[in-house]
Amino acid sequence: MARWSLWPLLRRPEAERGNLVNRKNVYLLFCVLGILIPYSQFVPWVLENGLHLGLLFRQLFANRISGFFGLDVLVSSVVLAGFVRTEGRRLGVRRLWLPILGLLTVGVSFALPVFLYLREGALEGTEATAKI
């Protein structure tokens, strides 16, 4: 079975690969997936149980393996918030509130691709001014 990957396309210069696939479009795709996939589990749970935070945390930490995943996501969220703040300021990324809002409302699966999308825009602006 043939394997398909975006990585070779992302590594090539944009002029070489054309405008078919660029990093910003891939990040937007990951933003959509980062909302749809987690919410496909969360929304039915909320419809069944309501927004009962005590039950949510009890079920999240019901056993060691789910606790492992829960804590991993919490640690990743703290690391991502720090990265967004420092890297965003360093590069002059605009709308840094958007990944933080995404982190609080959806999670890392949405906030990281949003930040990478915004960061890519800032990097494109930097490259354009460096060429002048």
Number of strands: 0
Whole-number count of domains: 1
Radius of gyration: 18 Å
Annotation field: number of helices = 7
Q: Give the structural class.
A: mainly alpha
Helix content: over 70%
Assign an overall shape.
globular
Distance between the termini: 47 Å
Largest pleated sheet = none
What would the average pLDDT be, to the nearest integer?
88
What is the helix/strand order? Answer: HHHHHHH
Uncertain spans: none
In terms of topology, how is this protein built?
Layout: H1 7-11, H2 14-17, H3 23-49, H4 53-60, H5 64-91, H6 97-105, H7 108-131
Helix pairs in contact: 3-7, 5-7, 6-7
Q: Can you walk me through this structure?
A:
- By secondary structure, the protein is mainly alpha-helical.
- It has one domain.
- Helices cover 80% and strands 0% of the residues.
- It contains 7 helices and no strands.
- It has helices at residues 7-11, 14-17, 23-49, 53-60, 64-91, 97-105, 108-131.
- The longest helix has 28 residues, at 64-91.
- The radius of gyration is 18 Å and the shape is globular.
- The N and C termini lie far apart (47 Å).
